[in-house]
Write a structure and sequence with these properties.
Keywords: DNA-binding. The structure is a single chain. By secondary structure, the chain is an all-alpha fold. 69% of the residues lie in helices and 0% in strands.
């Protein structure tokens, strides 16, 4: 009996998230109310609150699931033997392809990554760390192979790469970069970043660890 109860809970939670995904796309996050979510999921408003404390928490859970899908998509498509610059490109292209398929949800994810709702910042770090740690792992792989400067802090270097992607996707949303040029532009930005970590006389330059807030939950991996 308990197994059936747990399955019903799982299905109810999924129905709330599915309703949120649909309504956030149709109406936008700001205009969607808990009442709307309950109606779309065909459950009571109180039932929604028994699973999620707020609309912001629903958004965080939804983004977390989408992030996991992105990492899973990358793991399926990635060539482990390719140069690390190409593997980083593959990871970012998985995110960009998702943005093309789910433009509104991706826009919300992008906005929340840059400007999270303050009460949810702690939870947002847990969500984003899964994705950023994938970039950190690729940086470490590049350092092991001699493709990325070993003197650079992996986390700080990963953030440099991610910032390049952030600039590119922002320019795409604003219409400054056309879709067909994203692959070329992203590859150029990644290769430029790797080249920029070396000085002109081939002496290694150092990227020092950033002074980041350390949260107790799911900390980012560093060296």
């Amino acid at each position: 009996m308990s197994g059936k109860r747990e399955e019903n809970k799982r299905l109810t939670r999924l129905s709330i998230l599915d309703a949120a995904r649909m309504l956030f796309i149709r109406k936008g996050f700001e205009l969607t109310r808990i009442e709307d979510l309950a109606r779309q999921a065909e459950i009571g408003k109180g039932t929604v609150y028994s699973y999620f404390s707020s609309k912001e928490q629903i958004l965080i859970e939804l983004i977390g699931e989408e992030r996991q899908k992105l990492v899973g998509r990358f793991e399926q498509r990635n060539d482990d033997n390719a140069p690390v610059s190409e593997q980083i490109l593959t990871l970012f292209l998985c995110q960009f392809n998702y943005a093309q398929e789910h433009r509104e949800i991706s826009r919300i994810m992008f906005r929340e990554s840059l400007f999270p709702v303050k009460p949810s910042i702690h939870q947002r770090h847990q969500v984003d760390n899964t994705y950023l740690n994938a970039v950190v792992a690729l940086v470490r792989l590049g350092q092991q192979r001699g493709e990325i400067n070993v003197h650079c802090d992996p986390l700080s270097t990963a953030i440099i790469f991610y910032n390049h992607y952030t600039m590119a996707i922002s320019a795409w949303y604003m219409g400054y970069i056309e879709t067909e040029h994203m692959v070329t532009n992203l590859r150029h930005l990644i290769e430029t970043a790797i080249h920029g970590l070396q000085t002109s006389n081939n002496e290694p330059t150092t990227v020092q660890p950033l002074k980041l807030a350390r949260l107790s939950a799911a900390p980012l991996e560093s060296s």
